[in-house]
Specification:
Elements: E1 26-27, E2 44-47, E3 50-55, E4 58-62, E5 79-83, E6 87-90, H1 96-103, H2 130-143, E7 152-155, E8 170-173, H3 191-199, E9 248-254, E10 278-281, E11 298-300, E12 309-310, E13 314-316
Parallel strand pairs: 1-2, 9-12
Antiparallel strand pairs: 2-3, 3-6, 4-5, 6-13, 7-8, 9-10, 10-11
């Protein structure tokens, strides 16, 4: 019952010309290696046209904490988690413009070639499955200056291009221990990294507020469409936007409803696969508020492509 159903029949357009709030300190010298001298917690660096927030290592309570309500059984027991690696995380969900620039396609339902009203290049790319998100991460690594070692080696892939229903049968993580924390290049965040970032050092119901309309687009305020990234009224305390609402975000981990009972307290990397489903987090534009809670866990087949599935990128800070 943790595989969230998707209702994709809403197509109402909305005005998405809000100006993204860029008042954080941004380092724009992206003709440099991506690890580019970011040392302060929550500092923003722009690399390859993408704003990345430097998240320092830390410890937090993961799961059904006091600030949560109506928790699912897979959110317990609460786990004290320490992340020993600082990491960069996209300030926003990957946009249609960023996807198109690297992949020369745009699979989005709310894009210029989709069936819904065109939301614009600053809206999140969607209708992207888990395999395609990995392919984009590899493309970001290859396009870096200088290039970074790709985090993933994909095997058994069909001949379809990313964004055109590409699927694979296997993936190898290119690190010494097989965990993405040791990758050099871009990747998806682990489920633990995602929740650490979404909480922003606070115990709030949603990412940045106890009132979802303050921080995210969901079924009651979205107008049945995605919105330009960063246009919700508030970001969270780490400066991250849209971690509650807009589009669901794929994470690295396999899903196991009982994983928290055996999860290691340090750098959890998810259950040992292969499994059936991958975890996605954060809720979406066509879902009720309960799914946008920072502790909510949902999962789906890695080949699922729906108009409310997107992602944001992470990278371990060397």
């Amino acid at each position: 019952d943790d595989t969230t159903p998707v209702d994709d029949d809403d197509t109402t357009p909305v005005d998405d010309d809000d100006v993204v709030d860029d008042d954080d300190v941004v380092d724009d010298d992206d003709v440099v290696d991506d690890d580019d001298a970011v040392t302060s917690c929550n500092t923003v660096t722009t690399v390859q046209g993408m704003d990345l927030v430097h998240l320092c290592s830390g410890t937090f309570e993961m799961g059904c904490t006091a600030g949560q309500s109506s928790c699912g059984g897979d959110e317990s027991p609460t786990v004290t988690v320490t992340l020993t690696n600082a990491f960069q995380l996209g300030r926003y969900e990957v946009t249609q413009g960023q996807w198109s620039a690297l992949m020369s396609t745009n699979p989005s339902y709310f894009g210029p070639n989709g069936s819904g009203a065109d939301c614009g290049s600053d809206c999140p790319v969607e209708t992207v499955n888990w395999w395609e998100a990995l392919a984009f991460a590899n493309a970001m690594s290859a396009a870096a200056n200088p290039p970074l070692d790709e985090c993933y080696t994909l095997t058994g892939c069909n001949t379809n291009t990313p964004g055109n229903d590409m699927e694979c049968t296997g993936v190898t993580v290119n690190s010494s221990d097989g965990a993405v924390y040791g990758c050099e290049g871009y990747r998806l965040p682990t489920e633990a990294e995602w929740e650490y970032a979404a909480r922003g050092g606070e115990d709030l119901l949603y990412s940045g507020s106890d009132t979802l309309s303050d921080v995210g687009w969901y079924s009651s305020n979205s107008g049945s469409t995605t919105h330009a990234v960063g246009t919700a009224p508030q970001s969270n305390a780490f400066g991250l936007s849209d971690m509650s609402g807009n589009v669901w975000e794929w994470t690295q981990d396999w899903y196991d409803g009982s994983y928290y009972a055996s999860s290691p307290g340090t750098d959890p990397a998810g259950p040992i696969g292969p499994g059936s489903y991958r975890v996605f987090r954060g809720g979406g534009w066509n879902y009720p508020a309960a799914y946008a809670r920072v502790a909510d866990r949902s999962s789906g087949d890695p080949g699922n492509r729906n108009r409310d599935f997107g992602f944001r990128l992470a990278r371990t800070v060397p």
